[in-house]
Amino acid sequence: DKNSTVSGIVVSLVDGDPVTEFMVSMMPAGGIFDMSDPLGIEDRIKTAQRPRRVEHADGRFSLTDVPPGRFALEVRAEDYAWTTIEGIEVKRGKDTTGVIVMLEETARVTGQLVDKLTGEPIEGAKVVLGGGSMIDTIAESVLGQGNSVVTDDEGKFELTGLGEGKTGLTITHTSYRKLAVPPEYSVPGEVIDLGRLEMGRGAAIHGHVYDEQSRSVPGVLVMASDTMGTTIKRATTDSLGAYRIEGLPPGMFNVMRLDFEFRLDSSNPMDVVKDMVFRVIQVEEDAEHELDLAVDSKEGTTLQGFVRATEGPAPGSLISLVRDGEMFVPTNFTSTDERGFYELDGIEPGNYTLFVIPMDNAMASGNSSGTPSSSVSFEVTVGVGPVERKDVDLPGARVDGVVASRLRRLPLSGVRVVLERVDQGRTDSAYLDAIGGRVGETYTDAAGKFAFNYLPDGVYDVVAGGQNLMRMGNADVALTRVGGIEVDQTGLSFPVRVEMEDAGSLEGSVASQSGTPLDNVAVWARDDKGRWASVLSEIATDGAGQFHIPSLGAGRWSLAFARNGYGLTLVEGLTVRVGEVTEHDVVMPPGIAVLVDPGSFDLKGADVRVSGSSGPLPTELVSLTNISAMYAGSGARQVGSLPAGSYTVLVEQDGQTVFSQSFTLQVGDPPITLGPIEP
User: Is-above-0.90 flag for pTM?
Assistant: First the structure.
């Protein structure tokens, strides 16, 4: 009595006749991910109508038991372009009838995959229409979405279902590096022959998996994923416990063994990954890397304590511990129980940052469910004793507000909102300072509202717009910053109103001087007032060297490009217009890594600046692909990869220069380490 039926007819635009055989499915509007309700993904998956086959002489279809909501209906048929009808409204207990789906003739893409070195055909490569993002992968595996084919024994493929438009391909294979094919414009009935496409082997990670007694473990699934989430590969250990993951691009990778115990009946949600074993490794171009994965010993100090908010215990708070100098590499995870208590075992002595993410609504509901709130960090020193106590009192300041369209005066849902701390207090945490003071992010709800809770006293900026690594967020509105928001522990706040305008975008390709497309190049954008959209880049080039930056306001923009082994490259004066895409291609010169040896000097809170012949360089920029490499194993700090030229490095603290050194780089030079600093 709650659900309804959606029915209609499918007709060919080629001859006007009904299409008698096809697949039909329905997805919740906006897809299975809604970042304003991240914990609602299970419900959204349940409401999706998975692809079902229809055979009807009149081209009619009927989907029954459809729950109330807003949906997108997709129809696929042989020799036709896949077609989606957006905005189908299903009301409780009321059938939706008369849906007409018109199918145009498909365009086709053909090609052949070959080994870059040998020229031999590659069988079993997966060719996917579009970007092959994490969301696309999940939708395809869980809901049967996605358009893909596999190459035959001659390495050949034919992909159909394309309509009119510009779409690229993503090609993957277990033994080869992912290949992204730049978008081409297709029209109905056209065949686009890409010819021979070469795939390179890339780098590899190999090693063994061991148990607590150092015995090798066969049959364990091992996964490697880069920090940008653009490359995810898996392998299973053989009878000797050995694994090998091939086809990797350069960059920082998380390598994880997936044999940890899923404790779904536990009251602690983080118990699901409590025994997870993972390591972080810097992968070099086309190199071999050995990495063993052994179960960590539980010997060491136990760190425990209570997490409390103003209104009482904070159950369900997510807890992670990061050793100083190992950004983005948590040592351990857990979450607080109903008393707000947490416990982390097997911690080695040293200095750490304890990150606490409270769950909004958890305290009100009395359980451990809720929506993740702002991250709060605390410095912790762990000694050699059996137990170290660290109780956490969550701060009580708050920033909330609403996001609306300036032109239409209507609230905007699904807009990404980032909170940045901009006062001197952010330098208390090297991690927070390195990522530009970013405290957390959220997404506006249906009423355009957002909130950040549990904030320490300070001054903050709200930055609305843009997309995250998974390309979630409203990309049609321009990044908008509201600055200078002061908060204190009274918990009182005045709602922040963010009015947004429509956006344009920038895109293009990045290549080396020899013309080779460069993937995993971090990209940043700066407006005509000299403000970077974000110090922390979440945009990188794909396997074809392509990049796309959405959510830019009308005006003049500058871009920065960085990748280890290539020189930091700046492009200025690009014009962005609302509703348009500005294209610009970039060539990056070779680069030399420059590091500073701090000696006995503590770089925490210090500004490390680099100037070249044209003035200061934006060495404060960081990305998820290079932030973990900022600190070398010797303790030297990497300040950038620079092209040939003359430079000066300055290290300043509290307005005073504590170190200065000039130097010249030439093409082919090895990495250079300056210092040590002797204040």
Answer: no
